[in-house]
Structures are given as C-alpha cells and as structure tokens.
Amino acid sequence: MTRLAEDRRARVPFALLGVLLLVGASTYAAAVTTQGPSRVDRGAAAAMDRASAGSTAALRSAVGEAARAAAAEPVTDPAATPYGRLLSDRRPFRDALRLRIYLRLRERLDATRYRRGSVTAVASVPAATTPAELRRAMDQVTVTRVENGTALRVTVRNLTLTVRDGERLVARENRTRTVTVSTPVLALHDRASAFETRLNRRPLEGPGLGRRLTARLYPVAWARGYAQYGGLPIANVVGTRHVETTTNGALLETQRAVFGRSDPAGRRAMRRATLELGVEDVTAASSVDGQRAKRVLPRPNRRANMSGELPGRRGASAPSPDRRLDVDVGPLAGRALAGLRIESVPSNRSLDAALRAAYRVEAALRTSRDRTYHEPRPEPDPPGPEWRLTDTSVSTDPEVQSSVGMAPTAGDGERQFDSFSRHVVLDRRIRWTWERGNDTLTTGGTWTERYRVGVAVVGSYAPNGSAPDRPTAPRFERGGALDGPNLADVPEKVETRLVERQGGRDAVAAAVANASLGTTEAAVYGDRPSDLRSWTYDDLTRLREQLADRSVEVRAGRVATYTVNPPAKLAATLRERRAALVDPPEQYRGAADRARVNARVALLDATIDRLERRARTHERTRETFGDVLGRVGVESPRTLRRIVETRRTPVVSPRDRIAGSPPGGPVGVVPDGSPAYLTVESVSHERARGVPPSRPYRPLATRNVNLFAAPYGDAADAVSASVTADPSRVRLRTAARVLVASEPVANGSVRDRRRALSRAVAASLDGLRGRARRAVRNGTRLTRPEAEAAVAAAFDRWPDPGRRALAAANGSLAGAIAVAADRRAASPQPERVDRLERRLDTAVADSLRTDTTTVAEDLVSETLTRMRDRSLERASEAATERLARGRLNETLGAVPAGIPVAPVPGYWYATVNVWEVQVRGAYARFTLRTRRGAPTPGGASRYVRDGSTVRLDVDGDGRDERLGRDERIDFRTRTVVAVAVPPYRNGVGDVDGDADERGGSWPDPGCTSWAADACPASE
Asked: Is 489 in contact with 475 (CB distance < 8 Å)?
C-alpha cells in the first residue's frame, strides 16, 4: 500500500494555494470598503445625537422650573412623612431642589422623543416612586452654587440614552449631563437664611439684630433718661413704642447689611412711626387705640421711594455712654476735715491728736552707780538643832549727801535737761525667822554699803505723727512758725514727771543706789500755742480745696455697668500725689510747723480711708448688682459692659447687588416684608397682604423690664442692702420723695396713707434734730436753748416733713442750721459758718446711715400705689388723652427711681438704672425679589417665606404628598440697656408703676401661637 505521504496524486502546489488566498482576500476587502452604511446604522447615530442634545435642553429647562418652584415654596422644615424624610434636617432646601429637579427632568424626558423612520431614540432617568427609589434617584443629582450663588450648576448621572429600530434594541448608553443655569435661587435662600440667623443673634453673638437694636436703643434711653433727670414729665423712659420703633429700624439695617437694600415700604413706614413717636414724646400723648397700624403701615402695592435713608441716626451731641463724668474728692474731703475736728478718740486721725503728736518728747533718767565701800552680808546661823528658816527680810535706811561728780552724759539725739550727783550710805538690816514645832524665833544682823550716784535728766524729740521725717529747728527753745514755746517747757515737765513724782533728787539717788528706781522713761508733751489750732485749720482748709480739685474721669457707660470703681481710682490718685499734697518743708520751723504737716497727713489719710471704705462698698454693691443681672441672663457687669460697647460697632455698607460673573451676573435683591413694619398691634389683611384674611395677626411682641423702677424693694433693695440692715425699711430720702410727690393727688384714698407716711418721716427726723443740736453746741459757744432755737429756725424754713427730709439728704439743712446758729452768736463770722456747716453735714450724714432715720417700706409702697391709682383715675376723667398723660407724668415725674452708685447718704456720683429688653417677631410673609429678571427664562425672581405647607406629587399618583413646611422668617433676641445720670434729683427709671411692660401678644407673636396650622399662610 502506498503511504499518503508518498502518494502525489490529486495534489495542488502550495504556491498556487497562497496565490488564491491572497487574491480572494484582496477581493473581499475591496468589496467591503466600497459598500455604503446600512440604513439602520445611519438612523441610530443621528437619533442618539438628537436625543443627547434634547436631554441637555430638558435638563436646563427642568432646573429653571425647579428653581422657581423651590423659591416660591422653600422647604425649611421637613415633614415627618415617608416623603418628607427624603429631605435632610441640615439642608432641606437643597434636597427639595434636587428632588424637584429630578421630577421635572423625568417629566420633561418622558415628553422628549426623537424618531427617524423606524428608529426611535429616548433619554430617561430611572423611574422612582417609592421613597427608597426616590432617594437613589436624588443621589444621582448634584447641585452646586457658582458665581456667588447667582448661577446653579447641576450634574445628573446615569441619564440613559436608548435607540430602538422598531422593537429591536440598537444602542443604549449611560451618560452624565452637567448644565449651568443663570438662577440666583441658592443665593436668595442662603441670604434669607443668613438674614434669619442674624435676626436671632444677641448683641455678643456677632453682627445682627441684637447688636443693632442695642445701638438704636441706647441713644433713646439715654436721651429720655437725661430729660427725665432734667425735670421733663417722663414717667416711662423705655416704653413699648420705643422698643417697637427701634426694633424696626434695626430690622431695616439688618436687611441692608444682608441684602444690600432694605424694604422700601418698611422705610416709609419707619419714617411715619418715628415721626409719630416723636410727636407722642413731645406731647406725652401716647395712644394705644389699635389704629396706629393704619397710620404707620402703607397700603400694599403702593410705590415706594427707593432712595430714602433710614431715620433715627444718633446725634453726635446726644447723651451717651461715652460721656465723661468727673468724680471728685470734694464732699469726702470736707467730711474728713469735719471728722478731724469732732473726733474725740485719741488717734492721729483726730486733729487734736495730730497736733499733740508734734510736741512729743521721750524723756529718760540716765543713771550711774559706783560702790565705794561695802561690808559682807551676814549669813543665817540657826539658833540650835531642829530650827527651820521660814522667812528672810531686809530693810534699808539710806543716808544721802550732796556730792560733786560726773553724771552720765546724753546719748546721740538726746538733750540733757539737768544732772546731779549724790553720796549714798545704805544701812541694811536683815531678819531671819526660825520655827521649831510651835516655837518661833527671830535673829538678825546688819551691814553697810556706800555708793556714788550720778543722774542725768535727758530727752529726745520723738513726734509720733505721720509727717515725713525732716529736721526740726528750733526745738527746746522758743521760736518757729508761730514764735511759740516749742518744747521749752518740756524740761520742767520731765523734772516733775521723773524726779519730783518719785520723791525728789535724794529719793531718786537713793533708789538708784538701792537698784529700786521705778520709772526711768516717760513721754512728755510740750504746751501748744493758743493759735496753733486755728492756724492749722486754715492750712487744712486750703488743703481741702486742693483735694476737692482732685478728680478722675470715667465713662458714663462704665459707671452704668458697675465696671469702674471711682473711689478706688481716687484713692490711688491721692496716694500717688501724696508727697505733693502733704508738701513738707526741707526743715520744719519748730514743732508748730511739724504739727501743721501732721494735720495735713491726717486729713489726707482720713480722706483716703473714706474713699477706700466707699470703694469696698462699691465692690460689695457690684456683686449684688451682678446677681440682679444674672436673673435676666446677663452673666456679670463685665458682660453688660461688653453689650454697651457693641453699640459702637461700625456699620459697614454692603454692596447693593450680589456680585457674579456670567453666566449668572450681578443680581439686585429687594426684600419685601409683610407687614413691612412690625407692630405690637393687630394688623389686618387689608394692610398687609401676607396676613391671612379674617385672622388677627400681631407681628411683634415685646417685653422690657426696668430692674430698678423704684429705689426700694426687689432688685433695688438687694443692691442697696448695705444702706440699712433692716430690709423692711427704706431710706429717708426715698420716703420723702414719695411723700412730696403724693401731695397733688392726696384725695380720700391717698390721704390716710400719706398722713401715716408723714408721721413716720417726721419721727425719723427727731433723731437727726438731736444730733444737729449737739453739733451746734460742740461747734459754738451757744447755750442749749440758743442751739435748740437755731436748729428749730432752720427746720422751719421747710414747711413739711417731706421737704425737710429732702433738705437733710441734699445738704441744704446743714447749711441752714449753720447760718441760723451764726446769727445767734455774739460776733458772726463767715469762716465759722463754713466750719460749722461741715460739722453739721457730717453729723447729718452719720444720722442718715442709722436705722433710726429709715421708714417702713409698706408705708412707702402703699402710698405710692394709691398715688398711682389716683393718678390713673384723674387721667381717665380728663377731657383729652393729652391732658391725662400730662397730669400723670407731672405727678409721677417726682417719684425717685434707680440706684445710687456707692449708695452713701449725701455722697454718690451717679444714679443708674437697667432695662432688659426682649423682642420676638414674625413676618407673615417675607419675599425676596430680584431687582431685574435673570438672563434666562429659568431664572428665579421671587423667594417667598410665608409659613405654608409644601406639597408635591412625587409618586405620580395625582395626589400631592406633604414634604414639609415653609417656615416664616421669625426671630427672638434680647439686649440690656444701662443708663447713668448725675447724682441727686429724682434719678432715672420708669415710675409709672409698670416695671414689667409687655406689648403685643407676648410671648408669642403672630396669630395665636407659633404653630403653622394656627396661623396659615395667606392665599
């Protein structure tokens, strides 16, 4: 058999096969390259391109429509529903926008389809109806603000393009589409959110309504507080109308800061409200008749003046916390001088003690003793066995003889007044007593000692006052400033004190020899010139005048907030200037000159001590003042001071447009609030279209609490607790003010209480009258009947107890008594009047510090309450409201209010009061309008917040599902206002009996509550 490998039959050459294959491949390739595209391929490509372009247009249109819808109904509070939970609590508006974009895009794509012949192309997004499906669909949509929020960039992932030829699928692709649409929807929402955030800020939390309200309230409160202090009939320094008007001004300023513009209708209403409030303040005719909203609020849709400026700017010359107050030492220096003259306690703070200290000499006896002969002292010898020594006694019989010898010399700084020498023989006898059983026996012996004794009487000038150490000359001889005796009489006094009182020279020498001298040192004071006291007092008067010129400058705002301690600063100033004020000479001209400087130091120290006591009182008062502030949420006086300082925050004028480059471009925004002016009164739908029809709506609720409306009880009593130990009693000055103020309305209902109060005030004056009589007798040479007559004559200058008590508190009574006493003296002297007045001023002030000059609080409060009730009755009986308010203010304007800083009777440097102000408000509807339309039809031009419920058909069943709520623009903020006025008069504060004043539907503005269902949005 032939093998296959060897059989060559029917074989084709390999080269021929290669040629055939090559020719065949070339022919096929040529055929393929020359054939045109099929009809199906050409239709699918065009359809894909057209569908892709259509999806981009659909997405752009969907974004514009969704943005307009989201702005018209912005979801800010997601609903607790399955579909509401699609929106996050942190960014519900953006999530709702993404949901709307998906739904609008799905709707648009369903209506977008491209056909070419039998080829059909469609774009689609995943169908979603359940919450889980919708969440996945929303995750495919991303929104980003560009160009400062004036444009919106939207990216949609997994947008599917599908091409079919009849029923056959030709192509399918998933693509990502991104479009940028000129719509400021995110800028509008973010600005609205920023506006709401700023409205709810307190003064220390950053720029916002709280800080701007503070800035506007302070000039109002300070101007009215100073006007009340000046005597104008202002019963309510900070009232509801002032809070309302300043709140609206602050709202407009906040709008301008956030949006670049403020509501034009709001500006017009603000002008009207400010003008009306000014008229009310001038005429004291504040009406609360419910018609104010009609006068203030313009009718909706009226043309507004867009170029008007906000009213109510602070005047440069108006009273403000930046005012400088000079606190001087004058009153305390005068009282310190009077205290030096009347103090009887021996101390350097007494004028007599200060003068006496300059004449002090430390005297001493310097002694020497030389033993010239002595016999041994006998030793006891028992009379026999068993005798026991029980007692030993020694007696001495001195024999003194004059001698001439060297006495001890004076030491450094000492002067020797006298010296003497003696020979002294001491005959000593000793007795021993012995016992044995019941027997007693006495034995004895004698011995003799001889001594040579020397004694020197010396003294050294040793003033113990506080005057600076300087040389003094002359000292122990006549001369010096007053040509007085100086210490010339001291040697004789020392001789008497140390020698004569111890038996004379021989007795002293014998005591030295016997080592039994009793007194060897003593302080001796020289006689003072008769005119030293008057001469020194004249010098102290000049020093007091210098001290009175010393003052410290403090800001009124720091005084009002208790964050500065003027007495402490004054004390520090006097310490720094101590050397210049004492002004000691390089060498004292005798003891009198030293006494004068001693007195100057004593006066300066007494003044500093008084200042330091007041500084400590101030600190204690500041602590209780801080406790009162803590009740209204203010941590400390320093926090209150920071609130005061925030009002000076410069107002930065923002741009009036939201900046942006194409595709967005600059966008102007105009806020439109409804009501444009938030009032505490009811606003109807007729005046504000945003208010629901037939629904009472109060857009603003206010509360202002005057912490120290009266200078007794509650907070004021706590701060002033250091004045009286008994909290159930009030100061005499307060009781007197109420007594005088109640006089014009003392009808039957007031008269009984007023009589009781008058008797209590008169009884409190009895103790003061006694102190005044004693001061007159001690300061003059008048007899008791003459002193009593002088005091009585001065008291009679004021016709009733109330006015007498006020004269005692303000210092007038002390001056009147001094003049009356001087007239009864044999030779009237103006300088004596001045000295006596200061003595009396101190006596009266000391009396006012005691509980005997206080009055029961219930008498004061009941009289004040009945007086206010009667004033209101008279107001209701008046023919016109203006007359009523005028009578009420005139009556209540005399009632004291506020707390005196450093509450010491007769001395304080300011009266302070504090108001806590809270405001809560809600716009029924708040709209943001773009000043010009956006460049594309999809641009958003209106952003509306009106409290409505947002519903949307998200599952395609034809029924709207609740997504959430479009919250109204509402706010809550608070601030604290502190006012300080100069001392005396009636102080500052609300005296109409309404310390806690509330306006509107406090605490909740709006319809009846904050719930949306209780106050639905307008149609």
From this structure: no
Give the residue from 665, 666, 701, 695 showing the smallest Cα distance to 683: 695
The C-alpha torsion from 817 through 822 and 825 to 827, rounded to 10°, is: 180
Pairing of strands 472-473, 588-589: parallel
Give the pairing of strands 667-674 and 925-930: antiparallel
Note the pLDDT tens digit of each residue in 549-577: 888 888 888 888 889 888 899 999 999 99
Residue 804 in tokens: 């007498």
Any idea which residue has 């926008």 for tokens?
97
CA distance 529 to 535: 10
Count Cβ neighbours within 10 Å for each residue of 921-944 and write b for 16 or more, e otherwise: bbbbbbbbebeeebbeebbbbebb
Query: Is 143:101 a contact under the CB 8 Å cutoff?
Result: yes
Predicted local confidence at residue 442, as pLDDT: 92
CA 951 to chain centre: 49
**Torsion, CA 543, CA 547, CA 548, CA 551, rounded to 10:** 160
Angstrom distance (rounded) from CA 195 to CA 189: 10
The structure tokens listed for 46 are 């065009």
Where do the H-state alpha helices sit in 115-184? 131-139
Amino acid identity, position 40: V
845 with 335: CB under 8 angstroms?
yes
Distances (CA, A) of 1001 to 242, 255, 289: 17, 24, 15
pTM: 0.74
| Cα→Cα distances 663→6, 146, 151, 183, 185, Å | 86, 9, 7, 9, 14
Comparing CA positions, the residue from 404, 338, 594, 581 lying closest to residue 487 is: 594
Compute the distance between CA of residue 152 and CA of residue 141 in angstroms, rounded to an integer. Answer: 12
List of residues 6+ apart from 997 with CB closer than 8 A: 236, 239, 240, 703, 704, 705, 706, 990
CA distance 96 to 954: 11
Under 8 Å between Cβ of 443 and 380: yes
DSSP H helices, 200-297, are 209-229, 240-259, 264-283, 292-296
Chunked into runs of 10 residues, the chain (1019 residues) has average pLDDT values of 49 52 50 47 74 86 91 93 91 94 89 78 87 91 87 90 83 88 89 94 92 92 88 85 93 92 91 75 42 50 31 50 83 81 50 90 93 91 88 91 82 88 93 91 92 94 90 90 89 93 93 91 92 91 90 87 89 93 94 94 91 86 85 87 79 66 76 92 85 85 86 47 56 78 66 82 87 86 88 88 83 85 75 78 80 79 68 47 40 61 57 92 92 48 90 88 93 93 79 80 71 50
Q: Quote the DSSP letter at residue 965.
A: E
* pLDDT for the residue numbered 659: 73
The span from the CA of 299 to the CA of 859, in Å, is 53
What's the confidence (pLDDT) of residue 931? 62
Look at residue 361 and give its three-state secondary structure.
strand
CA-CA-CA-CA torsion sign (780, 782, 783, 788): negative
Please give the Cα distance from 866 to 859 (Å, whole number): 11
Quick count: other Cβ atoms within 10 Å of Cβ 39?
Answer: 13
Q: Are 170 and 135 in contact (CB under 8 A)?
A: no
The DSSP-derived string for 6-17 is: T--TT---HHHH
User: Can you say whether the dihedral through the CA atoms of 625, 630, 631, 634 is positive or negative?
Assistant: positive
DSSP 59: H
pLDDT tens for 117-163 read: 788 888 888 888 899 999 999 999 999 988 877 889 999 998 888 88
Q: What is the pLDDT of residue 943?
A: 93
Q: Which residues contact 891 (CB under 8 A, 6 or more apart)?
A: 741, 744, 745, 867, 871, 874
Preceding amide of 785 cis, omega within 30: no
